[in-house]
Amino acid sequence: MNMAYAAATGAVPPGPALPGSLQRNRTLGQWLRFASEGQVDVFSGKVELGQGILTALAQIVAEELDLRIDQVRMHAANTDTSPDEAVTSGSLSVQESGTALRWAAAETRHLFLQAAAAALHCAPSALQVADGAFLHADGRRESYWTLAGRVVLDREASGAIAPKDAGAYRVVGQPAARLDLPAKVFGLPAFIHDMVLPGMLHARMLRPPSPAARLASADAAEAALDQARLVRDGSLLAVVAATQYLANRAAVAAAKRLAWETPLAAPLPDEQTLPDWIRRQPADASLVAASPRQQDAVAAPPAGVFSASYSRPYLAHASIAPSCALAQFSDGRLTVWTHSQGIYNLRADLALAFGMAPADITVRHVESAGCYGHNGADDAAFDAAWLARALPGQPVRVQWSRADELAWAPFGPAAVVDLQADVDSLGNVQSWRHSVRSNGHSNRPGRAATPALLGSWHTAKPFPPLLALNAPLAAGGGAERNALPCYDFPVWQATSHRLLSMPLRTSALRALGAHVNVFAVESFMDELAEAAGRDPLEYRLAHCGDPRARAVLEDAARRAGWPGAHLAEDRGMGIGFARYKNTGAWCAVVAEIEAGVDIMVRRLTISVDVGAAINPDGVRNQIEGGAIQACSWTLKEAVRFDAERVTSDSWDTYPILRFSEVPAVDVGILDGAGPPLGAGEASVGPTAAAIGNAVARALGLRVRALPITAERIQQLLA
User: Fold this and answer.
1) Which residue segments constitute the domains of the chain, with CATH numbers given?
2) Residue limits of the Aldehyde oxidase/xanthine dehydrogenase a/b hammerhead domain (predicted)?
3) pTM value?
4) Terminal CA-CA length for the chain
């Protein structure tokens, strides 16, 4: 009832405040069940994206219930059975779902312990709990499973039973084998692309030549089809066949015979002058935050005033596996299999798009090979659902092409960051001003009155495309994420300018605005240190009183051999730091680069404080993965486009980091105090900044626009 209340109203259900996602999903039985002997079934609304979250959550449950991890059976998120935890994003899964499961499991253990004591006619303190059994010294025993019929979990959590103290942990904090890896390692069916349903049809979408184009006629294309059929609704078009081969062949043949109309519209910006275009656009300006101390409180006039501007292009998700979805519509009910990060949000938009009741739609999560943001998963799910409704009774599989994925999925917004600093005679910052301009970073489903789904904008009765927004800063922010300084500046302010024109569709991409903001801030800190004739590490520490921030900076620098006096002439070392979202994990990165024909990152030395690390191996994987993706963004990636369309629709035109270019990565995890903090996005911004600073030290040339390519360096030299 409480879950339905939250889903229907968007409000927090009445009752006492509960930890994490328990606040909106308040019944213990939503999280844990003991239906199978020897196993606990665990339901989380967070989804596995390859980040190992289900393993970490299993460790938390095993810890609190005194089980072995192999006794914990994690279930993929499903709108019929799982708590509604909105979207798996923002490095919040351990904080939100992990906290909820920790408290739910602790209270569940308490209830079963009381029941075991009653059944064995002893005090609860007389029982030991091990591997799910409640053991008395005289040999008598009960278990979660023998008591399952006596303990009612269909009750609201009280929040009164505290979890274990960290000093008693035996599972949490220890390396654990990833639950999701065996199938992937041994080539077993693991991804949504591997799913096969009886009688399944295969479909390929036919996209317009440009976003503004509208379908004039499909008659010639339909007449040319062999062993395939064409399904159309306005300008939304697909071919369906019995096999993927036939669907692909039909899509190629049909695409050549479609007649499109392209109405006169504003052309896309000039890719080469994108920062200038961003500055000219109308924008919704807002003060993000400012220091309590005002400008006139600075006693002495500044000895120097510095300013610099930094930018990044539009970025594609570039998922290795293009988006895929399956759907079936039977007896008025729609079932969708998807790798969406937000199954409940997707269900809400599917209900809007098709005029269905949410209760008549089931959305099941199935893992895919890579995501980290709002890619094409939700759009592919709409495509499959639309076709399933057009072909009732038969399951339909939609596989996007590489061109679909690179040209039609939402992009990470391009951005410009302007920084100014007033410094004293020693070069220390007196006043700091940060301004970021970009499109919004949130265009996900389930958050507006109309669907945020690509296909719904191309039907005969289309819904309007939505302008991307930014989440409130209290929820992590969007463009302004990490625009607030992580240093102790006496006076500072941050402003955001959300563009009101959106030539390319933008939405959430890993780390959101933190990527470009940290790149800008940490590049500027190096520039200020150089102007003052001071070491970049010393300069940062002089502005930083946070002991946990200082610890990661000093640890990364020590392990990397800062300042790199031993390096060859063609190599450089740079440093970058941030506390993610100003509230999450602390991360410092030292990058060692080689400046040859191209810039090559040879080594990354990373120090991170994520609070209590649930699975240290998982933390290392997440930090390393974020850093490697940041290398790709920093050195290679940019969405390319002409006046009408995106042109970077293949790996040739949208290059990403190759395996041969992956640097050695050394991740050190500091012993962190307090609750666990997310790791998936903490290293992205610091890595980009460290690379940029290393390039500047190696070449004596500051590159302020991403990506840092040989062509861009040659332009600056010229």
Assistant:
1) 2-180 (3.30.365.10), 193-262+321-408 (3.30.365.10), 415-441+477-717 (3.30.365.10)
2) 186-269
3) 0.94
4) 67
